[in-house]
Design brief:
Length: 415
């Protein structure tokens, strides 16, 4: 091979040089772009999911020694009610001229609370009294006339025997006596009717004064001077049906709704303990009065009446209250305080066949496996370990709540 052939072999083909200089195939670039976009979307989705907080309801784990329902067979919530209360009104329609009450006033039975305009009723009473007086005066007149006619008739009858007067004159005198007696009887009955009218007028006149039906405390003042009050609703809202509401504070008790599935645990005269929502550290001894023999099908509950053994001015109607039904009275020897904490039963969820609770640590939900104790404390459950007193636990954890996820506590509704 000559030198020219060797040089020809060493020469690089131009087409091969252009192919090497072009780099990767052109179809590979769209695929790489799509992979990068998918990767960015996955990273963004992961970031959004981890940043979005799940809204949850929470409760605080408490020690059995500090829980007001510890040792309770059952717990239920309800309200303070008054067995004796009344909206005081007048029995007639009239205009108020005086209102002598204010909210919070203590009144005694028979005390005057308000007065109505009595001018018309007073005039009617005076007219009835005048008519009754006239009727009685006429009765007296007829009585005198009847006595005189009787004497005249006796005198004429005696003269008839001596032939001094005719028998007809004597009979006419006797007829006159009988006629006057009949008039007298009729007038006496009219006088009684007039007396009855006076009584009616007096009653109506007395209705213009509104009195307290029993001793108690005024809780509402519903009318002012100048307003029309009536026992019946009328006038398109311009007529008041009551002056105010009076409550007998000695009749306060508690009505609670007990789930019908647990009503068998409650017995009459069973000891209990009440804690007002307004005073959570004040435990009031109580006992069951009665179980109302009727169920609420909508709520699946049965009403239980509970008596408060200590009456106090801080207890007012419609206060929220939690009642713990006890196995033994509050002053009975207390059992040993169990180890662990109490949490609502709804805080315990099932995950992968295990009982778990979610404890909030900052804004993160930590899943902890627990083994609840066999003994129940009403609607609370005892957790011997894994949760400490004061920990915030999630109530009714959502199914999508996982360990380590962010959680936000739902704001409580304002009343």
């Amino acid at each position: 091979m000559n030198q020219a052939d060797l040089l020809k072999e060493l020469r690089i083909d131009r087409s091969q040089r252009e192919e090497h200089r072009a780099g990767p195939p052109r179809w590979l670039w769209p695929l790489l772009g799509a992979l990068i976009v998918l990767l960015l979307l996955a990273v963004g989705a992961w970031y959004v999911l981890n940043q979005k907080a799940i809204t949850v309801q929470t409760a605080v784990a408490v020690s059995p020694s500090s829980n007001p329902g510890a040792g309770a067979v059952l717990q239920a919530t309800g309200y303070v009610t008054a067995r004796r209360q009344a909206t005081v009104s007048a029995q007639i329609t009239g205009t108020l001229t005086e209102v002598l009450i204010e909210e919070g006033d203590r009144v005694q039975k028979g005390q005057v609370l308000a007065r109505l305009d009595d001018s018309a009723y007073k005039a009617s009473l005076m007219a009835s009294q005048a008519q009754a007086a006239a009727a009685h005066a006429l009765v007296n007149q007829l009585q005198a006339q009847a006595a005189q006619n009787e004497r005249d008739a006796v005198r004429l009858e005696s003269l008839v025997g001596r032939g001094l007067v005719s028998k007809q004159d004597a009979e006419q005198a006797r007829t006159q006596v009988n006629s006057i007696r009949a008039q007298l009887i009729s007038q006496q009955r009219q006088a009684k009717s007039a007396d009855a009218q006076v009584t009616v007028a007096e009653v109506n006149f007395d209705y213009t004064v509104v009195r307290a039906p029993f001793s108690g405390v005024i809780t509402t003042k519903d009318a002012q001077v100048g307003e029309i009050i009536s026992p019946l609703s009328a006038g398109g809202g311009f007529t008041r049906t009551g002056v105010g509401t009076i409550v007998d504070m000695d009749s306060l008790e508690v009505d609670v709704d007990v789930n019908e599935a647990y009503i068998g645990r409650v017995k009459a005269n069973m000891p209990a303990e009440a804690v007002l929502d307004a005073y959570p550290d004040w435990k009031i001894p109580a006992h069951v009065i009665a179980i109302v023999p009727a169920a609420d099908r909508g709520k699946a509950t049965v009403k239980v009446r509970v008596a408060l053994e200590n009456k106090d001015g801080r207890i007012v109607p419609d206060m929220g209250v939690r009642v713990s039904f006890l196995e033994q009275a509050v002053n009975a020897p207390a059992a040993a305080v169990p180890k662990g904490v109490l949490v609502p039963a709804t805080a315990i969820a099932q995950r992968d066949g295990r009982s778990v609770v979610f404890v909030l640590a900052g804004d993160k939900a930590q899943q902890r496996a627990v083994t609840p104790a066999a003994q129940n404390y009403g609607d609370m459950r005892l957790l011997p370990d894994q949760v400490q007193a004061g920990d915030t636990v999630v109530i009714s954890p959502p199914d999508d709540l996982k360990d380590g996820m962010r959680a936000a506590v739902a704001a409580k509704a304002q009343d």
